[in-house]
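Protein in question filed below.

…
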Amino acid sequence: MSQLLLSVVLTMTLSTVAYAQPTLETKQRENLRRCLDGRYPSLCRKELLTRAEHAQVAEAERRENLRRCLDGRYPSLCRKELLTKAEHAQVAEAERRENLRRCLDGRYPSLCRKELLTRAEHAQVAEAERRENLRRCLDGRYPSLCRKELLTKAEHAQVAEAERRENLRRCLDGRYPSLCRKELLTRAEHAQVAEAERQISQESISRPGQDSRDSNGGNRGGPSRSYGGYGSGGCGSRGGPGWRRPDGKCASWRD
């Protein structure tokens, strides 16, 4: 009996070892695959690599780093200590070219590394920034984003008119008095804006479902419900639900 038990235990042990072995090999194989990808060195468990695999992985990481560096857009992700002298020169040119492209866009001066520009490129970039700034200024909606020191005298007048026109549009909306720069309005426009604000205020008072009517028992955002007394000839005295519709008539159960 004891021999049979020993045999069973031995068989189970050997089965467990046989099962565990492929699992360990699978993990090593998957780790090697990830390491040889070269893009994610921090995910590579190098303690699982053989000496030959270490050399292969180092080459994969160097190759992937060079690819990233030559893209030129993300200098902070480039590990320059892995580059050869010739590669350093190639990467410097890639970063210079990408920086010039970004600078000539004109929209993001803070992202432009002007120390990488030639004198001729400085002039091109200054013109690109001036042109983009004028476009933003003539929009009229964002005066705080307009760098008025870059505008000519004629452009100043155009921008002032754009801001005045946009301000009038906002003022005539009537809903946001605090955003209306009334010092830019003419006397006639002042009257128009006052009327627009008055109408908005009147609509908010007369519109059903406002907070001022919620105290009568109406649901917030729904019709106001004015309740009549039961048995006193009011709404509900004839079997209705006991509240009035927005038109003043007693509601029925269908409402």
User: Anything to note?
Assistant: The longest strand covers residues 226-227. The two ends are 86 Å apart (CA to CA). The longest helix spans residues 2-37.
